[in-house]
Design goal:
The chain is of the alpha+beta class and 275 residues long. It contains 6 helices and 11 strands. The protein has a 5-stranded antiparallel β-sheet with strand order 7-8-9-11-10, sandwiched between helices. The chain has a 4-stranded antiparallel β-sheet with strand order 2-5-1-6, covered by helices on one side. The chain has a two-stranded antiparallel sheet with strand order 3-4. Strand 7 and strand 8 form a beta hairpin. Helix 1 packs antiparallel against helix 2. The longest helix has 15 residues. The chain is globular.
Amino acid sequence: MDTTQLRLEIVTPMFLRGSDNETPELRPPAFKALFRYWWRAAVNEMNVNTLRKKEADLFGSTKGRSLLSIRIPGGVPPRSDEYAPLPHRDNFRSQALSPNGSFNLTLTAPELREYKKIAKLSFLLGGVGNRSRRGFGSIRYQNWGFQNIDELRNEVHQTLDQISPGIFQQNGGRIDKRATVNIPDYPIILNIYFGNTLSPNIDVLLRTIGQATHDHSNEALGGINPRMASPIHVRIQKVNSQFVPIVTQLHSVFPDGPPANYKVRQQDFINAIIT
C-alpha cells in the first residue's frame, strides 16, 4: 500500500461538526466527499455510465468499498471559536475551526498518484463544511508559497490539465473550458475566475462575498424549491501573506429548466466578488 501525509492549514473558519452537530470536528468522510466532488467537476466524461464506473473505482459505491483510506492522525486539534456564517450581517455566530490552525491528512491506497492530483485540486478550488461555497472552510497545503496571482493561476491550470488533459486553457486572467469540448449533462467546471487584487484581511473578503450573495440572491445561484446547490463556488487562497478569492463556475443543471437571464445573473455575482 502507498501512504502519504498532507500537512494542511485552515485559511477561513471551517463550520465542520461532529456527530452531535454542534462541536467542531475534523471528519475524514468530509474530505472524501470533497475529493469525489472536484474529481467529477474536472472530468469531462460524456458517457454517464463510464463516469460512474470511474468514480466507483476511485471512491467506492454501494457495490464496493473505496480503495482510498483517509485518516486524520491524533494530536492537538485546531482551535475553535465563534464566527458569523453571514459576515455581512453578523447577527448570529456559530462555532467553527479557526483560521491558521493546521492538521495532517493521511491518504492510503494501492496507488496514490491520481488521488494526490485530486487532493491538490480540491484544496485549490474547494472547501469543507457549511458555507464552503461562499468562502468558508478554505484549506491550503502548508508548504504552498504562491508569490502572486499568476503563480496561483498556473498551479490551478497545471493541476486541472493533469486530471483532464487538453480540456482547459488559460484565457487572460481566468481559466476556461475549451469551446471545442462538448459539455456533459452534469456540473462540470466551465470557468475559474481570480480576484483582481490581493487583500490583507480575510474578514473583509468574507463580508464582500456575503454581501454579494445577499445582493444577487436568485435562483440562478441555486435554490430550495426545487432544490439545487449553487453552481458557483467561492474560496479564498493565500498568496504572499495576503488573500485572493477564487470563483469557480460550473455548468448549471436546473431541475425545472434555466431561469431567465441566468448567465447574466451569475456573471454579476462573480464580478461583485473578483473586482
